[in-house]
Amino acid sequence: MKIIIALLSLMLLTLPVELHSQTAEPDKIKSPNRTFVSVPVTVSDREGRYIAGLRKENFTVFEDGIKQNIASFVTYDEPLNIALLLDTSGSTGNVLKNIRAAGKDFIKLLNRNDRCLVATFDSQVKILTPLTANRQMLRNSLDKIRSAELGGTLMYRAVEQLFQNSFANVQGRKVIVILTDGKDFGSAVTKDELLSRLEESDIPIYTVFYKTVAGFNQPVVIKGKQSKKSRKGTKEIPVLPSGAIYIPTEEEIALRERSDETEAVDALRKMSDATAGRFYLSNTPKLTTIFKKVAGELREQYRLGYHSKNAANDTAVHDIIVKVDRPDAVVLARGKFRGGQF
């Protein structure tokens, strides 16, 4: 009898472990011998039109030059986890109505099983609504957004926070959609640092740039006798006595606006290119039209997955190359990942 009781006790102790191993999702499996790598991919023709209807056998994946076996292939049927990231810095005051309307129209286009979070950035990064499928909650959060009164535009910090924290333990298709006039001011992370980290991420970023009144015509108080070169190094601010007020000319304002706009567009394009997303250029009256296009094109993305043997026990950065058996296809895919982070 004692032997039977001992055997039953042993079976009860081992049962939870066995049940856990049977219900573990394949995409989450990590062992000393393999690590699952998720690779978002978009495929378009030379004119930028998405190529839909491709199948698993149309793709080939290489890790560090070595062909990999594609273990998972997912198309538009998989629900989306979307972060809608909105710029609410001071320059958005006169277009906030358009931003709200575009955001609400975007939410209407989500499928029933899609989840979305709403976040804003100015001098702070705020998560207004965590990932949810509740459309009313998402619409209510958009009604609450306001333009900031204080300076600061922490765009790089906001993106970093989303992929490091908000999406850290989220499985499946993840996407960040950013609506911004593109200027970053005050982020601790630099553009180059962020781009380096994004290359190792499996989250595509869709960026929508819109132009607002830049506000560079504000007087500049010179705190001491000094001469400062402009960003392009072609024009100098004249030497003025301490406490004097320097008012930029219209030519200088236009030059500054073009320079900052060019830098902003370049940063947004690079974020999208590095993550297999896409960049859009718009004006505020057309934001809703652009958001409808984004919502439709999110359905055209593929997600491949393979089990990496090389990266299971290291922390090195590994290169990924994805090829498609179409002669004129343009492939955008996750290009890198770091071992030991899965």
Any descriptors?
17 strands, five-stranded antiparallel beta sheet, six-stranded mixed beta sheet, alpha+beta
Outline the structure in words.
With about 350 residues, this protein is of the alpha+beta class. Among the domains are: about 35-75 and about 315-340, no CATH class; about 80-215 and about 265-300, Rossmann fold (3-Layer(aba) Sandwich). It contains 7 helices and 17 strands. The chain has a 6-stranded mixed sheet with strand order 8-7-6-9-10-13, sandwiched between helices. β3 (about 60-65) and β4 form a beta hairpin. α2 runs antiparallel to α3, α2 runs parallel beside α7 and α5 (about 190-200) runs parallel beside α6.
Rg over CA atoms: 24 Å
- Average pLDDT figure: 79
Helix-strand pattern: HEEEEEEHEEHHEHEEEHEHEEEE
Shape: globular
CATH class of the domain at 80-214 and 266-300: Alpha Beta
* DSSP strand count: 17
Estimated share of beta-strand residues: 25-35%
> Which structural category fits the helices and strands?
alpha+beta
Q: Estimate the helix proportion, in percent.
A: 25-40%
Strand order of the largest sheet: 8-7-6-9-10-13
CATH topology of the domain at 80-214 and 266-300: Rossmann fold
CATH superfamily of the domain at 80-214 and 266-300: von Willebrand factor, type A domain
Q: Catalogue the unreliable spans.
A: 1-32, 214-237
Measured between the Cα atoms of the first and last residue, the distance is: 47 Å
What is the annotated CATH architecture of the domain at 80-214 and 266-300? 3-Layer(aba) Sandwich
- Tell me the major beta sheet: 6 strands, mixed
Please, how many helices?
Answer: 7
